[in-house]
Write a structure and sequence with these properties.
By secondary structure, the protein is of the alpha/beta class. α12 (about 200-220) runs parallel beside α14. It has helices at about 5-10, 15-25, 25-35, 45-50, 55-65, 80-85, 105, 115-125, 130-135, 145-155, 170-195, 200-220, 230-240, 245-265, 290-300, 315, 325-340, 350-360, 375-390, 410-425, and strands spanning about 70-75, 90-95, 140, 160-165, 280-285, 305-310, 365-375, 395-400. The strands form 2 sheets. Strands 2-1-3-4 form a 4-stranded parallel beta sheet, with helices on both faces. Bound molecules: Double cubane cluster. Double cubane cluster (BJ8) binds near residues 115, 314 and 379.
């Protein structure tokens, strides 16, 4: 990486030595898991470039944005409305972490028996090895699972943390509460930036973010083909990068890739062999760089064709209605979109079970891998209902509980190979 970045990182108050240690294995891992894939779409070049310079150019853009008076807002959940952040002329980045490296640091202030995503996210800030965290003016948390909502109290000791109150149900009083929270966030961001969220700016931001979601939907639609024109690993990577790249550029690059994928489909070309066991992954999110599960499935002869996760369909399936003409109507549409997301933090959450069955059919999958981050209770508890529904639908399912370390890779290989053999028969 360029020396210019080192100066930028130092200016951001990063721990350069620790940062070097953290990034050192990334090129090797990326080569093994990504660059070594055969017959990859050419359109992946851009995303390879982004990963190759993961803490460089995009961070520079955000630093420049701040130098010209802009704000950078970081969040950890798909409920936080990017549209409002963007309408206030602030940059929005998603900071969920999927690396093992900062987990031990997170464990200094959080219980060990807590979801690794939370421990890694807090650990990244404490270790000062994430330039996105360093460049952020404040973070927006939410009251989803208990682990997250209590962790924001701790994170606030290291960076100002604003919390949105997410209801736990989807009844009328809950809808009112969420709409109020959306309004409250609009006021917060206006105060932070000094910029008014006008009806025009909000309408533009809604369209911008919807276009990004539409591009991702197009990408996922391409994955319905057999053979799949792109690996699950690559598609997951793109979903992960959606959280922090510039939205217009990201949309353009995904659409360019989709042109190529659609051409591949017409020619019957794919990344996997036709008839390879097709897998739907569902459950906890897989933030960058948690690639282990996909690597094991695809290294064992399967192909992941869809993720019913927040680094998958839950990120893009619901769009915000664009037909509003007043600020109130736009805010109501943003609020409706949020409550259309079927996160396991809601109770009841039958609609997620329906989503999984629907997606399993749409993507013509042969089996479902239920991915549960260790100690993630909402998804773990919800497994029972999902398993029952899938069994009734005659769809094989396996539950995998894991974290971001490599310690269980061998065990995962054994279990997933057996599962793939079983569903291929
Ligand atoms: S909308 S899934 S991004 S809360 S942190 S619930 S893994 S124990 S992330 Fe999430 Fe929003 Fe829901 Fe999606 Fe479990 Fe860990 Fe909690 Fe997690």
């Amino acid at each position: 990486m360029s020396n210019d970045w080192r100066k930028m990182w130092a200016d951001l108050g990063m721990d350069l030595e620790k940062h070097d240690e953290f990034l050192a294995p990334l090129p090797g891992i990326y080569q093994d898991l990504y660059l070594s894939q055969e017959n990859r779409p050419k359109g992946m070049d851009f995303f390879d470039f982004v990963v190759g310079d993961i803490h460089g150019i995009r961070v520079r853009e955000l630093v420049d944005h701040k130098s010209s008076g802009g704000k950078v807002v970081a969040s950890f959940c798909v409920f936080v409305p990017d549209e409002i952040t963007i309408a206030a002329e602030a940059a929005s980045i998603g900071l969920c972490a999927g690396a093992q490296f900062p987990v031990p640091t997170g464990e200094k202030v959080l219980p060990r028996s807590l979801c690794p995503l939370i421990k890694a996210s807090v650990g990244f800030k404490m270790d000062r090895i994430c330039p996105y965290f360093q460049v952020a003016d404040f973070v927006v948390g939410e009251t989803t699972c208990d682990g997250k909502k209590k962790a924001w109290e701790i994170l606030d000791e290291f960076i100002p943390t604003y919390v949105m109150e997410l209801p736990q149900r989807k009844e009328e009083p809950d809808k009112k509460l969420w709409l109020e929270e959306i309004r409250r966030y609009k006021e917060k961001i206006e105060n932070e930036t000094g910029n008014e969220v006008t009806v025009e700016k909000l309408a533009d931001a809604i369209k911008l973010v919807n276009r990004k979601r539409a591009a991702l939907k197009r990408l996922y639609n391409a994955r319905k083909a057999d053979p799949a024109p792109i690996s699950g690993k690559d598609a997951l990577l793109i979903s992960e990068l959606a959280f922090f790249d510039d939205p217009s550029r990201f949309t353009e690059k995904v659409n360019t890739l989709c042109d190529e994928l659609e051409e591949r489909i017409t020619k019957g070309e794919g990344i996997s062999r036709k008839g390879a066991p097709r897998i739907l992954v569902t459950g906890s999110p897989q933030p960058i760089p948690s690639w282990k599960l996909h690597a094991v499935i695809e290294g064992s002869g399967g192909v992941v064709v869809c993720e019913e996760t927040c680094t998958g369909t839950r990120y893009f399936e619901n769009t915000v209605r664009e037909d509003g003409s007043t600020l109130d109507e736009h805010l109501a549409a943003i609020s409706e979109r949020g409550l259309g997301i079927n996160c396991a933090c809601f109770s009841p959450n039958e609609a997620r079970v329906d989503d999984i069955i629907r997606l399993a059919r749409e993507y013509r999958v042969d089996g479902v891998v239920y991915y549960n981050l260790q100690f993630c209770q909402p998804y773990s508890i919800e497994y029972r209902k999902v398993e029952k529904a899938l069994q009734e639908a005659g769809m094989p399912v396996i539950k995998i509980e894991s974290d971001f370390s490599d310690e269980d890779t061998g065990q995962l290989q054994t279990r997933l190979q057996a599962f793939l053999e079983m569903i291929e028969r």
